[in-house]
Amino acid sequence: MKVNMHEAKSQLSRLGKLAWEGEEIVIARAGEPWLYLTPYRERLEERNPGGFEGRIRMSPDFDDDDEELIDAIEKSKIFPDED
């Protein structure tokens, strides 16, 4: 649903209820989309980044250059049908 700013100001409670019910509310300014009205949701659990320490391993040659791949990229044509 797209509403203009004036309508959004005068009907905020109704629009908030619609947003909670799953309606996508876009508030427009001068006819152009300007804001999304979305319901606030509490995070269920705190994010704890990490946790894969010791589980991911890199190959010993991970950083080595692959000359075959480099040649294929450097010598390829961007537009193969053009000469």
> Between the first and last Cα atoms, what is the distance in angstroms?
52 Å
Q: Largest sheet, order of strands side by side?
A: 1-2-3
Largest sheet: 3 strands, mixed
How much is the radius of gyration in Å? Answer: 26 Å
> How are helices and strands ordered from N to C?
EHHEEH
What's the helical proportion of residues? 25-40%
Overall pLDDT metric: 89
* Structure summary, number of beta strands: 3
As a percent range, the share of strand residues is 15-25%
Uncertain segments:
none
SS element count, helices: 3
Mass-distribution shape: elongated
Overall structural class, as computed from helix and strand content, comes to: alpha+beta
What's this entry about, in short?
This protein is an alpha+beta fold and 83 residues long. 28% of the residues lie in helices and 17% in strands.
Describe this structure in words.
This protein is of the alpha+beta class. 28% of the residues lie in helices and 17% in strands. It has three helices and three strands; from the N terminus they run βααββα. It has a three-stranded mixed beta sheet with strand order 1-2-3. The longest helix is centred in the N-terminal third of the chain and has 9 residues, at 12-20. The protein is elongated, with a radius of gyration of 26 Å. The relative contact order is 0.12.
